[in-house]
Amino acid sequence: QAKDAGRNTLRFFDPDMQAVISARAEMEADMRLGLQENQFLLYYQPQVNHAGRLIGVEALVRWQHPLRGLVAPAHFIPLAEDTGLILPLGQWVMEAACRQLQLWRTQAHTAQLTIAVNVSALQFHGESFVSDVLATLARTGAPADRLKLELTESLLVKDVDGVIAKMVALKAHGVGFSLDDFGTGYSSLSYLKRLPLDQIKIDQSFVSDALSNPKDAALVRATVAMGRGLGMMVIAEGVETQMQRDFLEGEGCLNFQGYFFGRPVPVAELACFLVAE
Ligand code: C2E
Ligand code: MG
Ligand code: MG
Ligand code: MG
């Protein structure tokens, strides 16, 4: 009878599903180990103004896995978010970015650069988020007004008043805020009016289609007008060609990020953007 029950139970396990579950469990264990063994690193992607001058960078995490090689965030951030590992990982990213800002503040040609850090919803909604960021800034000595936090619209669907309160608390210290992937989520115009945002990032999906699809072009135009009208800096991401860049500038978007200007690179490779001035 026990054998029958066992056989019945087994029927519920689809072997494919089991493979997925164990792959995820293995990856989670790997990620924990990776955090302990310092296998994560930051790449930095240039952000430039209309004159092509470097104004800042976005920190983009990578995982130097001992067997898989360099792993892109799309392969581990979702699992990190599901398992809560995004909390220690996000803290590591914040710490590493702040250490870099502290190194940059002492040299004239890097002192004005900002670093944008992506923040997950789970991280931002965590009780100690504000105090964690402030403690990291204090511990590293990084200038708060060079740190920019990138939030996504998905983070805003829950507790907008709480989100605003946290933003205001950090902004009081000089920390800036950017709305990432704008137009791909669910933000309403009334939120946009209330949130103390410094910057809005036009999502790369609109940028990549703007030259071929008049509807994307119209959305880019409207986003630029809205962002500027609200007093926000507008930056386009995923700019890959001169034509896209020129179109954006024509629409009044004066800040850019994308492969056309530079891919995400280890910090040492940013040097060429700095001496180019
Ligand atoms: P994101 O914040 O929207 O970052 C922009 C992504 O677009 C980056 O991918 C970047 O490499 C890519 N990109 C930049 N310019 C171009 C371009 O011209 N063409 C194309 N096709 N792609 C471009 P990446 O580094 O793979 O990161 C993917 C996403 O992973 C990020 O999207 C962000 O949502 C997330 N992520 C990365 N680092 C972190 C982190 O430290 N914490 C959290 N929570 N999420 C992160
Ligand atoms: Mg981002
Ligand atoms: Mg983005
Ligand atoms: Mg994105």
Automatic annotation (TrEMBL):
Keywords: ATP-binding, Kinase, Membrane, Nucleotide-binding, Phosphoprotein, Transferase, Transmembrane, Transmembrane helix, Two-component regulatory system. It is found in: Membrane. Its main location: membrane. GO terms for cellular component: membrane. GO terms for molecular function: ATP binding; cyclic-guanylate-specific phosphodiesterase activity; kinase activity. It comes from the Bacteria. Residues 24-277 form the EAL domain. This is Diguanylate cyclase/phosphodiesterase with PAS/PAC sensor(S). The lineage of its organism: Bacteria, Pseudomonadati, Pseudomonadota, Betaproteobacteria, Burkholderiales. The chain holds residues 758 to 1034 of 1034 of the full protein.
